[in-house]
Write a structure and sequence with these properties.
By secondary structure, this protein is of the alpha/beta class. Helices cover 43% and strands 17% of the residues. It has helices spanning 3-12, 29-37, 59-67, 101-118, 137-142, 152-164, 184-193, 207-216, 225-229, 233-252; strands at residues 17-22, 46-49, 73-75, 89-95, 121-129, 169-173, 197-201, 220-223. It has an 8-stranded parallel β-barrel with strand order 1-2-3-4-5-6-7-8, surrounded by 5 helices. Bound molecules: SN-glycerol-1-phosphate. Residues 21, 173, 176-178, 201-204, 222-226 line the site of SN-glycerol-1-phosphate (1GP).
Length: 253
């Protein structure tokens, strides 16, 4: 079963999915030890690995460490250099909210041969950056202007354009460490207008916000900073998800 099919199958069954974003610069054997020796049920559904700017050469070793946990590992590359065949799949993304040709298609051209040769499963994804109250790394590094957070129509048009171009997944991104997460009404609007897998991330730090994003229509909620600050957050996420998926199941009966 491909990763994309697996995610789509979860979406069809209204099962919510939680991903933890690992920044290789912040990865350590201590975190690996924590994840390996903790309750296996608490592990997220999958890991995303990547970052706007990597200052160490730790991408490959981080992916290899994560592979020992038995969960899918998906690359979430900040640029064409963040490709390794040791992952299970790659979000092959274009920064659709921006008007910087390098992040719309330039980096993708640079990475294309390597992605094809690595046999990584590529999931074509429209990456949509939303203004979040602070200048995030992705905004600065990509040299793009995010979509204003009150402009739902622009976010919706952007995602429809991505779908018409053949993209099968979308990522509404406030940026790591965002002050404000992506507004719920915007998530709802995008969800109503495109069919693809909907990732939502950036600035999501507590369970009630996770719940809001799922109820608004996110299929996959991505958590980065909150896990870095407190790895025990995984247990809360697990308990929440179990409860949510159980009530969804019973409401279908
Ligand atoms: C960033 O959406 C992710 O790409 C995660 O953001 O670090 O704010 O959780 P946080």
């Amino acid at each position: 079963l491909s990763i994309e099919k697996w995610l789509l199958d979860r979406k069809l069954r209204s099962k919510k999915t939680i991903a933890i974003l690992i920044d290789p610069d912040k990865w350590s054997k201590e975190v690996l030890f924590f994840l390996k020796n903790g309750n296996k049920n608490h592990l997220p559904d999958f890991f995303l690995v990547g970052g706007s700017l990597l200052s160490s050469n730790a991408l490959e070793s981080t992916v290899l460490d994560l592979q020992t946990l038995g969960k899918p590992v998906i690359l979430f590359p900040g640029n064409s250099m963040q490709v390794t065949s040791h992952a299970d799949a790659i979000l092959f993304m274009s920064l659709l909210s921006g008007r910087n040709p390098d992040f719309l298609i330039g980096q993708q051209v640079q990475a294309a041969y390597q992605v094809r040769e690595s046999n990584l499963e590529a999931i074509p994804l429209g990456y949509i950056l939303i203004e979040s109250g602070v200048t995030t790394s992705v905004q600065y590094i990509s040299n793009t202007v995010p979509i204003p957070s009150n402009k739902n129509d622009i976010a919706i048009s952007t995602s429809i354009a991505g779908e018409l171009l053949g993209m099968r997944a979308f990522y509404l991104e406030a940026g790591s460490g965002a002050k404000n997460s992506v507004p719920n009404t915007m998530i709802k609007g995008v969800k109503e207008n495109v069919d693809g897998l909907l990732f939502v991330g950036g600035g999501i730090r507590d369970i009630s916000t996770v719940d809001d994003k799922f109820r608004a229509g996110a299929d996959i909620v991505v958590i980065g900073t909150a896990f870095e600050n407190n790895p025990n957050f995984l247990e809360e996420l697990y308990q929440y998800k179990e409860q949510y998926n159980a009530t969804k199941k019973s409401s279908h009966l």
